[in-house]
């Protein structure tokens, strides 16, 4: 009666044949799948396997069905949720998790007979091949998930070589799963599955030590499944008594493993998000630091360029030989000085001088000596002038002094007299002693309308002094004291 009811209620004959005494060694090797088989069998089937159960252990009617419904419902929910998550995020680890959970669920459906009863038609060929095919796929997907989750190609290359080798073996088994004998195939898969559990646990331990994101949860998931397998193996061998925990260890362990792996995926995504945020913040900080460095360097370069431009402008305003202001600097300064004098109602004087008998120095001693003479003349002019006066070289042997805020025409004449006296002293250039003179013209701002007029008036006065005998000074013709000052003095022989 029990036998008849078992055949009609749950499983077809091919599934029941799995639990005949001649095939008992297959389930001892698989170990991890035995409990679900027991729960799926009806009363007669359970009685046939009673020697494997502890004495006095019974299941309440309908308990197996409820447990299986909860188990497969949880797997279906996890598969659906993570599939949607993969479609939204495109993370490969999530896809491999979905494939692993789906193939593991397929293996459980094959073990319990629910697949034969509801999902695929019963038949001797596929009925015996479904279980090894799904177990092989579950192992393959577990390895793919682990490689992607732990990022072994980049962070753990040695472990990745082992996982890749294991994956190649499983792919070869998958190709032969439709041809090899079922009993031999199940024996090999049982050993290989146990080895994969140990391999993935050790890999997760190493990843935890290397602080791979969410590796601790990954390790806990595989250790939990491994502990469930050990409990069930001890229960089967009779080392542990039969009770709800030991009998349902694999069911509970695999369910918790699937939940933990799903949590591990979420934790990994959060960790990667934090790492990306930290990397972005670090990149932003580095970019800001680089911008600050760049701004500082640009400011330094700008400052250096401004200083160089100022230096160039200064050099452009300087006579390269004597270092005095040149004609351009003189005109700019003279115009400003003339405007200041008009605004302040002060006297502005301009002293222009031309060296007497300078050409014979160049002709007799050469241009090098002439240049040295001009340099010495510039030094004596700066020494004779006031600190506020501008000393400039117009070109050749012509020089100009711009005297602002001078008290009276007499003070300008006194300054010109000092210059004549300074230039009349002999110049010692090497072993030579050279004497020269100068003709000076003086103009005043009150007599002229612009700075150029002031310069032109001093130039005319200088030529009048040179025509009057040289080595003397002459005031502008518009000034009431515009006559030549002093007697012309012939230059000494050189």
Automatic annotation (TrEMBL):
Predominant cellular place of this UniProt entry's protein: membrane
Compartments in which it is found: Cell inner membrane
Any one GO molecular function term: catalytic activity
Gene3D superfamilies xref list: 3.30.70.270
Membrane-crossing segments per the record: 63-87, 94-118, 130-150, 162-180, 186-205, 217-237, 249-267
Cofactor requirements of the protein: Mg(2+)
Keyword Protein biosynthesis: no
InterPro entries in the cross-refs: 7TMR_DISM_rcpt_extracell_dom1, DGC-Regulatory_Protein, GGDEF_dom, Nucleotide_cyclase, Rev_trsase/Diguanyl_cyclase
Keywords: Coiled coil, Membrane, Transmembrane, Transmembrane helix
Record GO cellular component, one term: plasma membrane
Annotated Pfam families: 7TMR-DISM_7TM (PF07695), GGDEF (PF00990)
Domain GGDEF: 346-478
Residues forming coiled coils: 269-304
NCBIfam families: GGDEF (TIGR00254)
Protein name: Diguanylate cyclase (GGDEF) domain-containing protein
Origin species: Geopseudomonas sagittaria
């Amino acid at each position: 009666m029990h036998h008849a009811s078992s055949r009609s209620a749950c499983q077809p004959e091919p599934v029941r044949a799995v639990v005949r005494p001649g095939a008992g060694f297959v389930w001892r090797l698989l170990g991890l799948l035995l409990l679900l088989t027991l729960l799926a069998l009806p009363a007669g089937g359970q009685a046939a396997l009673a020697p494997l159960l502890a004495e006095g252990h019974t299941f309440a009617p309908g308990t197996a069905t409820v447990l299986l419904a909860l188990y497969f419902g949880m797997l279906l929910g996890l598969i659906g949720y993570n599939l949607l998550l993969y479609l939204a995020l495109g993370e490969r680890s999530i896809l491999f998790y979905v494939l692993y959970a789906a193939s593991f669920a397929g293996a459980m459906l094959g073990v319990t007979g629910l697949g034969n009863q509801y999902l695929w038609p019963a038949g001797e060929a596929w009925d015996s091949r479904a279980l090894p095919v799904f177990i092989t796929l579950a192992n393959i997907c577990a390895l793919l998930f682990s490689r992607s989750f732990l990022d072994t190609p980049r962070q753990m290359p040695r472990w990745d070589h082992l996982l890749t080798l294991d994956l190649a073996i499983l792919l070869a088994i998958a190709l032969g799963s439709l041809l090899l004998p079922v009993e031999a195939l199940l024996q090999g898969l049982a050993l290989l599955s146990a080895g994969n559990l140990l391999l993935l646990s050790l890999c997760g331990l190493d990843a935890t030590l290397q602080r791979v994101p969410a590796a601790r949860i990954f390790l806990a998931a595989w250790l939990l499944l491994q502990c469930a397998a050990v409990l069930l193996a001890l229960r089967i061998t009779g080392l542990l008594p039969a009770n709800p925990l030991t009998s349902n260890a694999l069911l509970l362990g695999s369910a918790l493993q699937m939940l933990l792996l799903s949590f591990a995926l979420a934790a990994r995504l959060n960790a990667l998000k934090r790492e990306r945020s930290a990397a972005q913040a670090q990149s932003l900080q580095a970019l800001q630091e680089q911008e600050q460095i760049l701004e500082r360097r640009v400011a330094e370069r700008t400052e250096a360029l401004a200083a160089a431009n100022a230096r160039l402008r200064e050099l452009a305003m300087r006579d390269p030989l004597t270092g005095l202001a040149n004609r351009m600097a003189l005109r700019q300064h003279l115009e400003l000085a003339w405007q200041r004098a008009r605004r302040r109602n002060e006297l502005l004087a301009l002293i222009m001088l031309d060296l007497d008998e300078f050409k014979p120095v160049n002709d007799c001693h050469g241009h090098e000596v002439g240049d040295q003479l001009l340099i010495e003349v510039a030094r004596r002019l700066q020494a004779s002038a006031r600190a506020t006066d501008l000393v400039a070289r117009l070109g050749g042997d012509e020089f100009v002094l711009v005297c602002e805020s001078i008290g009276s025409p007499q003070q300008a004449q006194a300054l010109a007299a000092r210059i004549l006296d300074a230039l009349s002293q002999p110049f010692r250039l090497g072993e030579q002693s050279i004497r020269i003179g100068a003709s000076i013209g003086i103009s005043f701002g009150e007599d002229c309308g612009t700075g150029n007029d002031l310069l032109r008036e001093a130039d005319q006065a200088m030529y009048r002094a040179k025509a009057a005998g040289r080595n003397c000074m002459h005031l502008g013709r518009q000034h009431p004291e515009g006559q030549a000052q002093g007697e012309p003095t012939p230059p000494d022989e050189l």
